[in-house]
């Protein structure tokens, strides 16, 4: 039998333990609520870009490069949509920019490296070199953008250095002639890609204008048509 003093001490310890669990649960719920608050609508759109970027990578690995390219363009679309939505709703934030940069790795850099590796690379060493340059310089470029943000020249925003989109397009433009008529050599493609990668951390001003977005949209439409033509046997 417990004495009265021992029972009181035990009840106090039990009450303290229960209070501790309650406080811990409150902290966890608060953290979840804060995280839900931090992740805005634009971030969910960014996560959609991640989904299609990952699907694109899997299609490349499965030997479906043309469908992989088309799905990759869907990731591009969501990546552009999230920025537009954030500006439209006034929900731009440093956190959102970091989320966007994180997802850009899987929407642009990883698919580009895989596309070269699986369709253009003449051997493993070439693929290692090209993939390393794409991922390293691209990653540094995204880190720099998180740190410095956009520049401004005559009220026109610009990126510091070429973007990961530019590098991805270079890989695509190497894939198409090689896939359609076989005139583009994997070695030459690798040298070109390696040469342009350092431009992502250069002082080149890649201006963010309506005209540049229109040119990108036209190019995406053309490449999509070529990919569909190759996949369906028209080319």
From TrEMBL:
Any one Gene Ontology cellular component term annotated for this protein = membrane
InterPro entries linked: CDP-OH_P_trans, CDP-OH_PTrfase_TM_dom, CDP_ALCOHOL_P_TRANSF_CS
What is this organism's lineage? Archaea, Methanobacteriati, Methanobacteriota, Stenosarchaea group, Halobacteria
Alphabetically ordered keywords of this record: Membrane, Transferase, Transmembrane, Transmembrane helix
* Listed GO MF terms: phosphotransferase activity, for other substituted phosphate groups
Determine the domain of life of the protein's source: Archaea
Q: What species is this protein from?
A: Haloquadratum walsbyi J07HQW1
State which residue ranges cross the membrane.
35-61, 124-144, 156-176, 182-201, 213-230
GO process terms (BP): phospholipid biosynthetic process
* Keyword Transferase part of the UniProt annotation: yes
Record-stated family: Belongs to the CDP-alcohol phosphatidyltransferase class-I family.
Name of the protein described by the UniProt record = Phosphatidylserine synthase
């Amino acid at each position: 039998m417990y004495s009265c003093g021992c029972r009181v001490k035990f009840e106090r310890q039990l009450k303290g333990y229960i209070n501790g669990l309650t406080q811990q649960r409150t902290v966890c719920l608060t953290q979840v609520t804060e995280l839900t608050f931090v992740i805005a609508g634009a971030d969910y759109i960014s996560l959609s870009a991640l989904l299609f970027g990952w699907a694109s990578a899997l299609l490349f690995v499965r030997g479906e490069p043309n469908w992989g390219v088309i799905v990759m363009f869907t990731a591009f679309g969501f990546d552009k949509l999230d920025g537009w939505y954030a500006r439209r709703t006034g929900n731009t934030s440093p956190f959102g920019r970091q989320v966007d940069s994180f997802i850009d790795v899987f929407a642009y850099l990883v698919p580009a490296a895989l596309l070269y590796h699986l369709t253009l690379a003449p051997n493993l060493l070439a693929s290692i070199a090209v993939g390393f340059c794409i991922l390293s310089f691209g990653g540094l470029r995204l880190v720099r953008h998180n740190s410095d943000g956009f520049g401004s020249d005559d009220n026109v925003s610009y990126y510091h250095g070429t973007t990961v989109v530019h590098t991805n397009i270079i890989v695509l433009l190497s894939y198409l002639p090689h896939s359609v008529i076989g005139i583009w050599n994997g070695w030459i493609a690798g040298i070109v890609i390696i040469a342009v990668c350092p431009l992502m951390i250069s002082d080149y001003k890649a201006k963010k204008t309506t005209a540049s977005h229109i040119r990108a949209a036209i190019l995406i439409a053309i490449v999509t048509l070529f990919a569909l033509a190759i996949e369906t046997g028209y080319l």
